[in-house]
Specification:
Pfam families: BPD_transp_1. It comes from Martelella mediterranea DSM 17316. Keywords: Cell membrane, Membrane, Plasmid, Transmembrane, Transmembrane helix, Transport. The protein has 13 helices and two strands. By secondary structure, the chain is mainly α. It has a single domain, classed as MetI-like fold. Strands 1-2 form a two-stranded antiparallel sheet. The longest helix is centred in the N-terminal third of the chain and has 36 residues. The relative contact order is 0.13.
Length: about 300
């Protein structure tokens, strides 16, 4: 009986396990294996030569490969932190606004916000390149109404990365607002009514009732936002190509340059492994901070 049950489970789980192994685990294991080899991406895997930890030593060494990797890693960290810190409060604020039944046009606002998430990145890149135009861009023209001079936006190393962050926040805030609304609908109204009866004003009710009960939604949003931000590629490839002066050269774009354009597959694989490990550490840190906050 037990053998028959085990056989049936194997039959049912076999196809899904095989698909996961072929399309997820095999590429991951192959990437880790290649990171310990010197391999040109224009040659077969059989030509890979084992070099041990040399690729990783180069990433953290004083040579140009290491300097470029650390710069891309730093750019990715800045892009991720600023994006997440902007997206979460903004999505909660917009979620509260849309969730209010008294707010006129709530359904329309929800549709408009989520529509930005569905716009193809190529269209977003074209529009925002024009918006950021130093001479004829609408953003600089609006700044001119307030007496502010034209800003270089994408052409200055000090502002280009943050200009891409604004683009990212604009495109994704609708998606995270929908998540926030879904979390808000799960909060019982009786809790807010009890807080109001106890004399809590709207601000005290938000920090005492809404925000604590929205924690799991915010945890999920933070994880997704971090994953999306770390994997940023299209805006950089379509708008800035890593410039100016490497200020927007994020890790995914840098890995493409090294692994595909320069055909340094082993080095690119080592960078991809470091990116994956960094992402795992970041996700664990978020869960650890959430667990600590719950314990307090």
């Amino acid at each position: 009986m037990r053998a028959a049950r085990t056989f049936n489970l194997s039959i049912m789980l076999g196809p899904a396990t095989a698909l996961i192994g072929v399309f997820i685990l095999v590429p991951m294991v192959l990437t880790v294996w290649l990171s310990f080899h010197e391999w040109s991406s224009q040659t077969p895997f059989s030509s890979a030569r084992f070099v041990g930890l040399r690729n990783y030593q180069d990433l953290f060494g004083p040579i140009s490969v290491g300097r470029d990797f650390r710069r891309a890693f730093f750019n990715t960290a800045i892009y991720t932190c600023v994006s997440v810190l902007a997206l979460l409060p903004l999505s909660v604020m917009l979620g509260l606004l849309v969730h209010q039944k008294r707010a006129a046009g709530g359904q329309m606002l929800r549709t408009v916000l989520f529509a930005t998430y569905m716009v193809p990145m190529i269209a977003v890149a074209l529009v925002w390149s024009k918006l950021y135009s130093p001479s004829e861009g609408p953003i600089n023209q609006i700044l001119g109404w307030f007496g502010l001079g034209p800003q270089p936006w994408l052409s200055s190393p000090s502002t280009a990365l943050y200009a891409l962050v604004i683009l990212n926040v604009w495109q994704q805030v609708g998606y995270f607002t929908v998540l926030a609304i879904a979390g808000l609908t799960q909060i019982p109204k009786t809790l807010h009514e009890a807080a109001r009866i106890d004399g809590a004003n709207p601000v005290q009710s938000f920090f005492g009732v809404t925000l604590p009960l929205l924690r799991r939604t915010l945890l999920f949003s933070a994880v997704i936002a971090v994953i999306n931000a770390v994997q940023v590629f299209e805006p950089v490839a379509l708008i800035t190509q890593g410039g100016p002066a490497g200020s927007t050269n994020v890790l995914t774009y840098h890995i493409r340059r090294v692994g595909i354009e320069r055909a340094q597959g082993g080095m690119g694989s080592a960078m991809a492994v470091m990116l994956m490990l960094s992402l795992i550490v970041a996700i664990f840190a978020i869960f650890a901070m959430n667990r600590k906050a719950e314990e307090q």
